[in-house]
Amino acid sequence: MRLLGKERSSETQGPGRVQVDGVDCYYLQTQALNSAYLTVQPGEVIGLVGPNGSGKTTLLKAISGVLRPQVGIITLDDVDVYRIKPKRLAQQMAVVPQSTDTFFFDFTVEEVVLMGRSPHINFLGTESTHDFDVVQKALEMTDVARFADRKINELSGGEQQRVIIARALAQEPKILLLDEATSQLDIGIKIEIFDLVRRLAASGIAVIAAIHDLNLAAQYCDRLLLLKRGEIIADGTVEEVLTQEHIAEAFGVSAFVRKHPITNAFSITLLPRHTPGERSSAKVHVIPGGGKGAPVIHALVQRGLSVSAGVVNTLDTDYEVAQYFSIECAVEAPFSPISSEVHSRNLQLIQEAAIVVLPNICFGPANLKNLEAAELAADKLVIVEETPIESRDFTHGVAQRIYGDLRSNSPVFAELTTLLAYVESHIG
Amino acid sequence: MKRNATLPVLAAALLVTVVMSIAIGQVWIAPQKIAAMLLNLVVPTNHTWSEAEAIIIFQIRLPRTFMALLVGAGLAVAGVAMQALFKNPLADPYVLGASSGAGFGAALIISLGVVGAIYIPVAAFAGAVIATFTVYALSMIGPRSSVTLLLLSGIAIGTFFSALISYLMFVAGQNLTALVFWLMGGLWASTWQYVEITFPVILVATIILYAYARDLNLMLSGEESAQHLGVSVESLKKILLVTVSFIVGVAVAFCGIIGFVGLIVPHVVRTFTGPDHRALIPASALFGGILLIWADIVARSAIPGEEMPVGIITALLGAPFFMYLVRSRRKNIF
Predict the structure, then answer these.
(1) Looking at the partner chain, which of B143, B220, B231 has a beta carbon nearest the beta carbon of A104?
(2) What is the pLDDT of residues B227-258, one digit of tens each?
(3) Which of A302, A306, A413, B258 could serve as a FRET partner for B239 with CA atoms 20 to 30 Å apart?
(4) What backbone torsions phi and psi does residue A21 show, to the nearest 5 degrees?
(5) Cα(B230)–Cα(B184) distance, rounded to whole angstroms?
(6) pLDDT digits (tens, 9 = 90+) for A15-54
(7) pTM for the complete prediction?
(8) Which of A28, A84, A102, A104 to mutate against chain B (most B CBs within 10 Å)?
(9) What's the angle, vertex CA A215, arms to CA A210 and CA A220, rounded to 5?
(10) pLDDT at residue A80 above 90?
(11) The CATH fold of domain B6-333
């Protein structure tokens, strides 16, 4: 039996593995979280994304020990976090809240960051030089060391937020919870903070961050949880979670998701809501290729017209756009010549269409059949010609000959706007 | 924590204040006589004073001065604790309704005409404790108490007991003067017996609050943040409420409701110690003691042959000074 033995906290602490197991949370009678599951390993950066009121903050509150779940259990190294004394929990877990509460009285920046050491200081104890060293390091990591002697309330909101992040780092936590911690910060500091987060993760700290900015979340998180109305509707890698379907489901907006060509990072572009096929049952068929069909398809869909397209190769930008607007499409495998099967599918779409648009596309041996299809469209065909056919023909004149015939028998427009005016006047 | 000269200066000021408090009165007793008298307690010295002077000092002025010191210190640290708990610059030790509860207890005894010096303090103390715990019980939402509800129910309970006090005053008849005098607060009744009870309560309460000084600092960044930094918020609240209700209970029981000390002292002291409770609590205790001793000196010597309730002095001097402070130091307070 030990009477005077002092428990050395660092020896008894585990690696810092958080597990959320079937958790339901309520604010009084209102359910804010429904059956949440999550396991966080050391060194992982997990992003919580989702619209306002989806339960991101609630989940963080539940994990941080301030909102006890009605159902389910949250453990830190297999111990219920609600059975761990706050002081003990604070030695392992730090939280940066959504907005800095304004400080009631004017502490200096250093004093505020020093508060981060209090979980490590005994009752009635005072700060050691080690504590001051840790604080100094935290001040430097968040780039607020030069403010150390300023009063916290004299700083800007962004600077205050960095001080609070420094305070969390001074706790030397194994788990760091960030609740929209960088929302108020400008883009440069945001990147700085998240670069810091990645470095912390590399040193073994687990980070759970609620993030509004999907691109930021995609760029910095190993794993994302997408929440909607208290439910986790997707959990996985960035690629798995940030799909157009998920974003549409969670946020009710259309997004265009692609890998950025330079950084290979995910990039999400939000698009205006569209309502395809509302205005007319008459269809417009677009013969796309090499990205030249995309603006035409987009413009037509935006005007509420029903659009089909073909033949297009997968991997082509035009294909992505067609997919995005979920329009009917005759599709061929990448870089393959158009097979007769797909060709006849295309002809069928052309037959159903009232107008067939041939944009300013290039012709090669692989897509020559598209020119044949245009020929078969006969008097339905309209042409957009922005550059002469000579510069777009890679078939040693074959395409030029057919195109020449088409051009003399069909309306030709030099730009998209005049084409649209024509289309609208014919089927609007 | 930065060491500064605040505590030594206040300690010296307190010593001077105590000597002056003993010296000033209907009969002026020279400070060197007082020094000799006090020294005599340790080593025998020449008797330069009369028996009458010794009685005035030891039986009247000294216990009264100690009472003022203890109550002033207690109310000041209780004010510090309440301002931190509520994150509100207007919080004071009476915010939880303890003063009205105590007042009602005392008023009941006075208006019933119960004889016996000990009943008033006992009833006042009981009233303070009952009011505080009612307020706490009313503030519970599930397993936690809400600070906003705490404040609101404090106002409600305080108003309720004040109404009861007013009713008792309305029907008090010949006891009205005694009742009014008691409610305004005063130190005239101080005896060594009071000091013996008050001293351990205030001392222990102040030590407890000082022990939680770091936690009080953390509370200033909000309850949730405080918990994230390791404060057991709910236990801390209970400890603060119990401690403060003991301070207020004892203070009100023996000296009535002395206003403003618990409100202004923390603000004044903060302007030279900063917000760190490890400096603020001891400095507030000393300054609160000094302030109430001087207020009592004025109360008992402003009108020759008459004694004013000290609450009049603290409020009369406190209110304008407080306004001056709020206007000139807005940034530090809000």
Answers:
(1) B220
(2) 999 999 999 999 998 899 889 988 988 888 88
(3) B258
(4) -125, 100
(5) 41
(6) 889 999 989 998 888 888 998 999 999 999 999 999 888 9
(7) 0.77
(8) A104
(9) 65
(10) yes
(11) ABC transporter involved in vitamin B12 uptake, BtuC (1.10.3470)
Domain ranges of chain B: 6-333
Domain boundaries, chain A: 14-258, 283-427
CB pair distance less than 8 Å for B230 and A86: yes
Chain A residues close to B214, C-beta within 8 Å: 118, 121
Cα separations in angstroms, A268 against A216, A327, B67: 10, 21, 71
Residue with the two structure tokens 């051009």: A407
Residues in chain B: 334
Rounded Cα distance, B107 and B113, in Å: 10
Q: Which of B73-87, B107-121, B129-143, B253-267 has the highest mean pLDDT?
A: B73-87
Domain spanning A283-427, CATH architecture:
3-Layer(aba) Sandwich (3.40)
For tokens 């909102």, name the residue. Answer: A67
Task: State the DSSP code for A6.
Answer: P
Residues of A in contact with B89 (CB under 8 A): 104
* DSSP-derived pairing of the beta strands A30-40 and A18-27: antiparallel
Q: What is the H or E stretch that residue B131 is in? A: helix B119-138
pLDDT-derived band at B302, boundaries 50, 70, 90 = confident
Q: Which two tokens stand for residue A126?
A: 């005072």
ipTM: 0.82
Indicate the DSSP class of residue A378. Answer: G
Scan residues 223-282 of A and list those with Cβ closer than 8 Å to B: none
